[in-house]
Amino acid sequence: MVEEGKVREFARAVQDTAASETSGNLVPPTFAISSAQWSNRGDQFFRELGLDPSMTLHGEQEFEYLRDLRIGEELVLNVSVTAVEQKAGRRGGQMTLVELTTEIRDTSGRIVQRMWQRVIQPTQPMVS
Amino acid sequence: MRLSAGMESEPWVIGQLTLAEFVRYAGASGDFNPVHFDPAVAAKIGAPTVFGHGMLSAGLLASYLSTWVGREHIRRIRFRFNDRLWPEDVIIATGRCLSVSRSVGWLEADLEASLTAQGGTTKAVATCQVSSSDFEADIPQ
After folding, report:
1. Closest chain B residue to A116 measured between Cα atoms?
2. CA distances from A91 to A51, A57, A86 (A)
């Protein structure tokens, strides 16, 4: 559920003054990442993938907006691992690149947003 | 709203960051990874001190883009994280329009926004696709 108090708190944290005042209860563009944290217990999901959340670097994040998302809506999130790749790090060592894709749908099943999160984790100590 | 390739948006001086901003974002987002507020945990992973969430950088850039073109016109944003946000960083957001094109009754544009620290270090870059029937544009024929 996209709760008003949570949206206001998030908007304040990212200094989004436009969100609450002029856009008719539209939520800030990156708000969905916070519902991902809440409802999927992000850290636990990372551990299940064999990743250590404190060692993981967030390399890239992408959002696609298929329709407006407003306060009060109920959403269903579906997270899947869409890519895993091993690469040699720039300073030696190996790293793992993981892409998570989240589909956010309303209760009628219509897609609202897609998110791609690309994270990097060294699998061997980096030589610095 | 008027957009044309090469135009720059008014910069937004966000100012000096403190630990309070990181803690506020942790609470608002639910991301309580201690590397963002506990110096001892940050030291364990080799960081000189705590640092901001990548998604705090993204959120600030998204707020800047929303203020510039209107939240409802944003179709897609991709964020790349170049450097960590450190406490005491003085940061600024800037933006420019990369290209504008016309489709039936609509204008589409690609925008770029950057979060930069005083001294010139780029923290994060957002590329953003927007579209609206309300936009006006100067497009060379």
Report:
1. B78
2. 20, 15, 15
Task: Between A89 and B126, name the one with better pLDDT.
Answer: B126
B63 contacts A19? CB cut-off 8 A = yes
A chain contacts of residue B25, beta-carbon cutoff 8 Å: 13-14
Could you report the per-residue pLDDT of A1-45, keeping only the tens digit for each? 899 999 999 999 999 987 655 556 889 999 998 876 665 566 777
Minimal C-alpha gap between B114 and chain A (Å): 14
Which member of B55, B70, B71 has the closest CB to residue A61? Answer: B55
Task: Give Cα separations from A105 to A67, A76, A99 (angstroms).
Answer: 10, 5, 19
Q: What is the pTM of this model?
A: 0.92
Cβ pair B4, B96 in contact under 8 A = no
